[in-house]
Each structure stands twice: as C-alpha cells, then as structure tokens.
Amino acid sequence: MNQTTPLTRLQVVPEGAPFTDAQRAWLNGFLVGALQLDGNVALSPEQSAAIVGDLAAADDDDDAPWHDQTMPIADRMKLAEGKPLRRRMMAAMAQQDCGQCGYNCRDYADALAARTEERVNLCVPGGKDTARMLKALHAERDAAPAAKAAPDLAASAAPASAPGRSRDNPAMARLLSRRLLNKPGSEKETWHIEFDLTQGDLDYVVGDSFGVFPRNDLGLVDQVIAVLGASHATQVNGKALRDVLRDDVSLSPSPDKLFELLSFVSGGALREKARVLAQGGDPDGDAAHLDVLATLQKFMGVRPHPEAFVEALDPLQPRLYSISSSHNAAPGRLSLTVDTVRYLIGRRGRLGVASTYLAERAAIGDDIRVYVQKAHGFALPASGDTPVIMIGPGTGVAPFRAFLQDRGATGARGRNWLFFGHQRRDCDFFYEHELNAMKGAGLLTRLSLAWSRDDEKKFYVQDRMREVGHELWNWLADGAHLYVCGDAKRMGKDVERALVDIVAQFGMRSTDEAVAFVADLKRKGRYQQDVY
Predict the structure, then answer these.
(1) Integer Cα distance of 264 and 8 in angstroms
(2) Class of domain 218-311
(3) CA-based Rg of the chain, rounded to a whole angstrom?
(4) What's the CATH code, domain 171-214+318-373?
C-alpha cells in the first residue's frame, strides 16, 4: 500500500532559507496550495531554491519609492507600474502607516493580495481614490490564477489581540473631561480630552495613537431617515434603523455602492446620473461634496428599501488621534488634543464625525469604544541622553507634550527643543503654562514659536527653523533625533525642505548631499514623522 506524505510535512522551502520557523511553515502551506502540490511530489533542492529566489525577487520593491504621504495617488501608481499586484495595492494607499486600517500600508496590501483580508475600504486617509483603485486591483486579483497573486512571505490577517489592542477588538474607556484650549478671538476650536483607562486595563507608550469609535450626529441621522421616507423604528439586521445609522455606518462621503443602488431603483436621467457617479464621474460638478444626505436630496423621491440602503453604505470607521500624555507620568489616564471640524457646503453645515462627537455629543462619564494603535517607527530614542528636536504646529504638538512628560517622568537627561506654532499667540498658544513651566524647570531646553496671523507676513515653524538653522545643525551634529507631527501635504514638505537647506548651508554640503543626509537620518530612525 502506497503511503503519501501529509501536506503539513511537505518541505517546499529548504531549512536553510532565511525565514523564521513560522514563516517557513506558512510559506510551505501556501505553496502547496498555490502550486497544487501533493504529498507524493518531492522537490529537489535546486527547485526549492528557484521558488524561494523567485519569491524574494518579487518582494524587491526598491524600498517602496511611492511611500510618500505627500505624493498624489496618480504619481504613486505610476511609480508602481510593473510591480507585483500587492505592491500596486500598497501604492494605492495613503502611505501614512497610521494603522487605522489595522495594519501598516505594506501589510494591508499583502493581506489583500493573499486573500486573508477582503475589505478594500479600510484606508480612511486614502478616501475614495484609494477605495476605487483597490476595488479595481481587487478585481484584477480575482481574475488571476491564485499562484499569480502570491502574497508577501509573512502576510496574514491582522493578528488577534487582547481587548483594546486593535480596532477589531476594542475596549471601553471613560470620558473624564474636556477643556477648550483656544481663548476668545481664535478662529479654531481645539479641545484637550481626558480618558480614564483603568476599566479597560489599557496602557500605551508615547508615540502611540488612540483609536476612537464615534457616533454620528442624531440630527443628521434623523434628516437621512426623513428623506429616505422611513421610520426610526424600522428594523435592519435586528436593530432600529436610527441606531444603525448612528452607530454602524458612515454618512460621509457617499460610497460608490450607494450610487449603484440608486441606479437600480431609479430610471431615465436619474439612473444615468447615478451610473456616472458610481463610476467616478462628476456630471453636475458636485461629486466631491456628496455625503449620504446630500446624495439622497440630489435623488429626491428615489427611496431605496432601508435594508438595501444600509447595505450600500460603508461601515463607520474609528478615528485615530496622537496621544498627548505619558503613561509614565499619569498611569491610567490618557489625553488627546483634538481640532473640531466644522464647515459649510452651500448653506448646510457639515461636521467632522469624531471630533464633534468628542467635543460635544459624548457626555462626560460616557464609556466609549477605543483601542491603542502601536506606533510604526515614531518613538523616543532608546537612550534618555539623546537630544531631541520636536516640530509640531497646532495639534501636532500632541505627541511632543507626551514626549516631554515622559522624559520628565523617566529622568531622561537629554536636551529637548520644541518648535510650536499656530495662528495667534494670544489665543492659540496650546499648553502655554505647561510648556513655560517645563522650560523654567530645565526640562524643555529651547522653545521656538511661530505665529502665522500676528503680522502681515505669515510666519511658520519652517521659517523659525531657518532663523535658528546654525543651532539646529549643531544639535543634529551632536546626534539629536528630529520629529515632525502635523499636516503632511504642506507643513511636512516645507519642514523637510527647510531641513535640507539648513544641512546644506551649515553642514557645508551640496543640495544633493543634503538630501542624502536627510534620507540617511530617516533610515537610521533619527528623523521620524507622524504626518497626516
């Protein structure tokens, strides 16, 4: 009687291959299925080496040149042309490694390509452009033979974790307090939010982010139900429609699936308009501003069934915020620094769902679903003796307040230099008394400020950097680590450009050499960014 070797014992990947035991076991199993091998097949060492070599070559992505938050998606996709499918999927993402999807960008792409993750709408910062591109690439994946969609060697679904350690398994935290950070006269509305973590037994390290599951505004929910012509109590998946729309689905922006649904239940010109919108078109020039309510109003009188309507909406995603406190300084407590988003489209006010939830809809004492998102490459240096330079205008100061608290609580002896800026000193100087007290105590070695609306000429943190460029270069020459937090598209780019100029001028380098120097700082972990 012939005996067959069990699949679990088939060794496609040789023992000497440069993988961990877990990676080797996973890869053996994947290749057995992808190559349709069975237990009677024995690969020679040369064949095994060839397979591993091909996979290693396919994994070479030239350090992902598209991994730049400031680069438009069209440019990222151009750079990824000819790359394996999983790398083009990565290029489609927002390139922030924010963790909001439950992965970093590379691992999310690998999981999609490996078929261990089917949700293509998790990249919140990427918005519709990313969702549409991933949908197209997803279809390309499904049309290809399984062996052509080989995932990264270590790709897998997001690992299971303890409560509060991932978006898929949140914990509860109690909202303790909130206070407005702006003074009268400010054009902004920024809140300091405090949470009690003790009931969820959560902890964190500085540099981590905090995921908050918000609720939609009930006023908006009721308007949607009214235009839909439904009842608040209509049952959808065992819940009242009002509760589903408040807690479970996103009401902005309108997903393509909603336009597809409207095309099915309408006719004539409305059907054609919905089809064009579903395909990414903009027949009336308003597509960028169509949230769910505006879409229903645009197709007034077209009333899909509530269950089909809910099915066409995207899930309500958690929002991530930089943590602005240190667990070492205040165990069991956590704070955020949150800009409230409010704006007008036509005559209708729009709200940032999470920011206004934290600022006004959540009551003090409420328990909120939350999780801690571990940072990807944004952390204090291992040695407390290392000097740090922190550049964080506006709410970008959040992680640096945490850094300073942590350096104080742990007795770190390294020098600390903070660049902070906003619109007006009199009303937008967040944590002024705290920062001045840290400076007076010697914890904050230098505090460099920039106010963009106090004078006729706008003045930003990158302008202050240039003014003190010689000293900044000296800190870098002494081994300082430099951190940037805030807007990626403008501030992040401007700060990096200023840094290159400072290195060129005071480091006596050509522009190309200065660019290479800054790139080397990034490779060594001495230049870290938390930009969005």
Answers:
(1) 48
(2) mainly alpha
(3) 26
(4) 2.40.30.10
pLDDT score of 385 more than 80: yes
Overall average pLDDT of the 433-449 stretch? 98
Q: How far apart are CA 229 and CA 520, in angstroms?
A: 59
pLDDT band with cut points at 50, 70 and 90 for residue 187:
very high
Rounded alpha-carbon distances, angstroms, from residue 42 to 5, 10, 45, 124, 264: 10, 8, 9, 46, 53
> In this structure, what is the dihedral angle of CA atoms 487, 493, 495, 498, given to the nearest 10 degrees?
-160
* Token pair 């081994």: residue: 479
Can you give the pLDDT at residue 63? 67
Q: Which two tokens stand for residue 228?
A: 């839909």
Beta bridge partners of 515: none
Indicate the domain borders of the chain: 7-55, 73-149, 171-214+318-373, 218-311, 388-531
Q: Which long-range contacts (CB under 8 A, 24 or more apart) does 263-270 make?
A: 265/302, 265/303, 265/304, 265/308, 266/299, 266/302, 270/299, 270/302
Residue 57: pLDDT over 50: no
Q: Which helix (H) or strand (E) holds 471?
A: helix 469-477
pLDDT band at 5 (very low <50, low <70, confident <90, very high): very low
What is the token pair recorded at 447? 């505090």
Question: Does the 388-531 domain belong in CATH 3.20.110.20?
Answer: no
Interatomic CA distance for residues 148 and 85, integer angstroms: 9
